[in-house]
Amino acid sequence: MIISPSILAADFLNLEQEVNVFRGQDDLWLHLDVMDGHFVPNMTFGPPIIKQLSKKTDLPLDVHLMVTNPQFYVEELRDCKLNNITFHLEAVTNQLELIQLIKKNHQAGISIKPKTQVNELTDDLLSQLDLILIMSVEPGFGGQKFMHDSLDKLKKLSELREKHGYTYQLQIDGGINSETAKLAKEAGAQNLVAGSYIFNNNPQDYIKLVDSLR
Ligand code: DX5
Ligand code: ZN
Q: Global pTM?
């Protein structure tokens, strides 16, 4: 099980120290929530901070774009060392084109909001994706309550992958704690994003909390 701590809940003024707590950990990605104050009401950080961070850590960087114009960010981050870039299905009309652009340099993911159904992910998208991110809260804020209908989406997408031989990894984001992690794992999640569950604690406990989700 891969755990992706979301730095949204970290101490931004001590980001380097926060991130270094995870140095050398296996199966651990850093989840970077990019919000533009438009696709979601909240605003975080963009390419300048991501580029700086990528020079300070060897951990795989998992970029979650909650923005209206993901193509701009994909182009800006073209030369940045990242694991994957995930954009929202709802933000884009030609998703396949954007997947192909991302795949020139990085792995490509699509995320769906709680109200978006799995059948909006067409076969041609499913066959090209490296990652699918199921939102189990409305995107925009940390610390919200897990929405249980997201579990059915994980189950459906696991079945579809099995049936058609797709290769995407299933990630879930929002309201993950030790209880919801168990449910998500049973439903087929392979990657759990967790923000407040990890970072709203003393840094010396971060690794223990990550392990409690596995
Ligand atoms: C919400 C973000 C999440 C957020 C999760 O829009 O995509 O990554 O940090 O926070 P928690 O784990 O606190 O629900
Ligand atoms: Zn996220």
A: 0.98
Q: CA 97 to CA 44: how far, in whole Å?
A: 26
The residue whose CA is least distant from atom 7 of ligand 1 is 139
Question: Under DSSP, is residue 31 helix (H, G, I), strand (E, B) or coil?
Answer: strand
> Which atom from ligand 1 is nearest to the alpha carbon of 140?
6
Q: Which amino acid is at 175?
A: G
Ligand 1 centre to CA of 9 (Å) is 8
pLDDT in tens, 47-79: 999 999 999 999 999 999 999 999 999 999 999
List the residue whose alpha carbon is closest to atom 6 of ligand 1.
Answer: 139
Cβ of 68 below 6 Å from ligand 1 = no
**What contacts 172, CB < 8 A, 6 or more positions away?**
133, 134, 136, 150, 154, 184, 189, 191, 192, 193
**What's the pLDDT at 40?**
98
Check residue 72 and give its pLDDT: 98
Measured CA to CA, the distance from residue 18 to residue 80 in angstroms comes to 21
Domain tally, the chain: 1
CATH number, domain containing residue 185: 3.20.20.70
CA of 112 to the centre of ligand 1 (A): 14
| Ligand 1 atom at minimum distance from 194 CA | 12
Write out the residue range of the structural domain in which residue 74 sits: 2-213
